[in-house]
Every structure is written in C-alpha cells, then in structure tokens.
Amino acid sequence: MLDSKIVGGLVVDGTGAAPFRADVGIKDGMIVDVRRTGELPGSSGIETEAVETIDATGKHVLPGFVDIHTHYDGQVTWDTLLEPSSGHGVTTVVSGNCGVGFAPVTPGREEWLIKLMEGVEDIPGTALTEGMTWGWESFPGYLDRLADRGLAVDFGVQIGHGPLRAYVMGDRGARNEPATPDDIEAMARLVQEAVEAGALGFSTSRTLAHRAIGGEPVPGTFAAEDELFGLGRAMARGGRAVFELAPTGAAGEDILAPARELDWMRRLAEEIDRPVSYALLQVDAAPNLWRELMETSAAAFEAGAPLYPQVAARPFGLLIGFAGLHAFSHRQTFRSLSHLTPRERGFELARPAVRTAILAEQDLPVDRSVQFDGIKDLIAVALDRLYAIGDPPDYEPTRERTVAAIAEQRGVPGLEALYDLMLESAAGTDHPATSMLMIPFFNYSDANHDAIREMLTHPAGVSGLSDGGAHCGTICDASYPTFLLTHWARDRTRGERLPLEFLVKKQSADTAALFGLGDRGVVEAGKRADLNVVDLDRLTLHTPRMAYDLPAGGRRLIQDASGYDLTMVAGTVTRRGGKDTGARPGRLLRGAR
C-alpha cells in the first residue's frame, strides 16, 4: 500500500518537458511511481491503494521549489515554519549567503554577529537577540545544533566569510585588514572542516552596499586574491560545494568593477572545478552592463568554467508605506502617533486634520548613523521612480503609475499624492494606511521586464536573490516562485511570457542541481516526494503586509499567496489549502562530503 497518491493532475515534472497527465505514488517519503493517465493505450493510472488519495483533477502537480538565496541563519533556531518561503511552494532553502551568518563564533562575540546580520540583511537585532538560541562555537557545532530540529522545509547553509574572518583574525578581520598567509591557512582549515561537516558552500560579499549596523563594510569586502583563492581551494577539498558572492559593483557603486570581478571568478571556477555563483542585476548607472556580464559568463560556462550568475524574477528595490519606510517619518505629528497600534495609527493618519498637519510640517533632524534614517530624503526626490503597484500588486507598472505622474494627473503636490496613495486600504484589511509602493533600485531601468526576461532565459542564469527571511521591513521577495508562475507564465501583458515548464525547471531542478542536490527538484520515481499541487487558474500573489510576529515584537513583511492546494515535504503534507498543517518533516540538509 502507498502512503499517498496524487491522481488526475497535470504534472510539470521539472525537467522542462511539456506537462502531462499522470498519477504520482508516494511511499516512505519518496516518489515510487509516476504513471501517465489517458494519454497512452492501456494507461489507467496508479491502481495500488493508498492511505490517502489526493484528487488533483484540474490542478497542476509540480516539484517542490528550491530557493538557493535566503537568510534564515538565525530564524531557524527559533522558528520551525520558516515563512515567508514555506508559503510559496518552497520545500528546500539554502541560507548563509552574502558572507554573513552565525558560525563560527568566538564566545562573547555573538552580539557582534547579530549587528553584522542586522546591518547587511535588515533583520531586527532585537528579534535575533531575543529569539536565537546559541550553543555552538564551530561551524560543525552549528550544524549539529540544528540537526535534530523538525522544520517545515529542508534547510541547508553555507559558511560565511564575515564570521569566519572575525573568528580567526579578531578585530583585524572585522576591520577588513589584509589577511596574512597564516590567517588564510587558518581560515582555509575551517572552510574545509565546514564543508566536510555538510556546509553547502562558502559565501562572501564584496559590495559596499553590504555594511554592518554601524556602517562598517562586511569583513571580506576587500579580500585579496590570495585569500579568495585560498578559501575557494579549501572549499573544493571539502567536497561538492558552491562559492557564492555579491561582487564589487553589484549595486552599481563602481560600474567598472564587475568586469574585473568576473576575471578572477572565472579563473577560480576553472581551477577548483566548483560552481562560482554571483549576484547579477541591472543598474541604472550602466543599464546595459548586465548583458555584457551575462555574455562573459556564458562564454566561460561554455568553455567549461562553472560560472553561474544568480538573477532575480522581478525588479529589486524597496517597498514604501506607512507601515514601513516612508517620507514622513521625521515629522512631529507622525512621531506623536508612535505609541499607537498599527490599526489605530492608520485611522489617525486618515483624519483630515492629521493629514493636513503632517503635510504642512518640516522634517526633524535626521540621524545619518541610523540605517535607513535618511531614506525619506531619497523618497522625496525620487517620486518619478516610486510606483503605485496596487492590489493585487503589479510589478511591471508603466511610468503613468509613478507618484510624480499621479500627482500631475490629480493636480496636487507630489508628497500629497504620496500620502494619499499610502493611505489607501489594501483589499481584505479593516484599516487604512496599508498600501505599499515600490521604488525599484535594480532591474527596472527601462520601466519594463524585458531585461529580466533575457536574464531568466540565459543558459548561464540561475533563479536566486529572493533574500527570504531578510530585509524584513523593506523587501518581500521570498514570493519569487509564485511570481514566476503567475506573472511570467500567465499574467504578463507588456511583453512575452515564458513557458510554465521552463519556469518550474528554473526554480526546482536547476537550483537543486547547482548545489548538487540530485535527490529533489524533479517529479520522477526515485526522487524525494517534495511536491506542490497548485490551482494555477486561481493562484494569486497578494499585496505585501506588515506583520509584527518576530521575537521582541519585530516587524516583517509577509506576502501571502492563494492557490496552493497542497505542499508536501518528504511525502508529508506541510500545507493544505494554504494553511500550515503543523507537520515538520524538513531537516538540516548536509552537502556531499
């Protein structure tokens, strides 16, 4: 008898093949049978009885998604659900990206790592301080600490350059001083040890956009080639792992740097014969540079160098609204409402007298030492790049949807239009001030998704950069998998779409293959039963909302989806009808050692 079988669904198996109607049989956490139905003579599906039969008639059956760029390093110690990712068909996450993490750690230096993570990834330090349970020093000790935790998804992690440098070099490493040969040798031993213990890779950050909460660049930002190559070689000695990085110039701070970075990345990939994966974005300062970098990567890939750019599914930027960042946070009347609940504050902001007062006031002084404290200046001068995205959100809005254009249409000042747009209630809410607007820093230079489509279809590109678990008050891109299915496969109107089977492969088999996870990402016998049953016609990505459910009352943006009938991890249903079942079959995922 099977544990379960999914019958009557249209299977998109993750290989890129066209959808086909089939039944899927599951036993002991594995797919044991995929039987086509109604397409071949004598094909009547799986007749073996099952404890549970799941009717997927009219639905699509997809592999569980593998998200390779998340930051749940701390959250995983207190939270077994790992939202937002687990609500978007994701069954495997890879954390420890961008050179930050929580192991190894010198006893007594835990708070320093928290501040580093808070600065780089905008995860509230108070939430990490209150929520995290420590109990390790080494990276293998961190893995052992997580090994027995039951989770809603499988969790894999890389060792980050920042904690590694601080552990070995102390304050010298934290200050980005050059590493000596002895330093490099000591770090290399720990990298090899981490991969042998199950780390999925090594990560580093070299972009000046990544800074600790005090403004200091991430340790490793200025690392020389001898350090980078020494750590890359050590990683390769440890086993099958990935060298991941945010390169210099990734955020547009130096448009000449990415080409230089690609040179050493290509040489490293060739030497160690391990994947080197880097963040690639379209930047306004050089809107066509990404294409040159993609072509260089493709040529290197075709020549045998495993060089993989990670690309995003949509514009990459900040969400603006009264619940998070906005242009009025330094006005006295707004600050006087800080003691209210979000719902109470929303009603106050909607009162004409409060609106008039806030719009008439001058800003109070800005503390430039505080992260995002000066964002209101950027918002105020960038109204021609700040888009109203609506509900359901439209991530490919035309220029007529900028705040500046709407203000002109209404005949009002720009900040007045911004205030009113942020005040609009999102669907399903019972109070105002819930609308979010988008200011895209990357991937929207041309005010359309044509560049993103080209990145997604490039043979060297890998779907990544969701940052699940990070940028809690400003970004909510853990919903990338749902966005691929809705916008790119079904809803896009301003340009060409992409085939469903291509997109599913991009977010399952391809991402799994990058990290050598050959046991998942495809719906076929012998693979893990990580699966989604999706009502694609009904699949909807809702507007982001602010939740206050992190430890210490920390806030984070959540983006819900409806249309996922069922998500299964290792043969156990973890979500049904979009709701958590409470099952925790996910485990720590150790790499090939």
UniProtKB/TrEMBL annotation:
- Residue ranges annotated as coiled coil are none
Indicate yes or no for the key word Ligase. no
Q: Give the matching InterPro entries.
A: Amidohydro_3, Metal-dep_hydrolase_composite, Metal_Hydrolase, Metallo-dep_Hydrolases_sf
Top-level taxon of origin: Bacteria
Keyword Nucleotidyltransferase on entry: no
All residue ranges annotated as the Amidohydrolase domain in the record: 52-574
Q: Which keywords has UniProt assigned to this entry?
A: Hydrolase
The record's GO CC annotations read: cytosol
N-terminal signal peptide: none
Question: Which GO molecular function, any one, fits this protein according to its record?
Answer: hydrolase activity, acting on carbon-nitrogen (but not peptide) bonds, in cyclic amides
- The protein here is known as Amidohydrolase 3
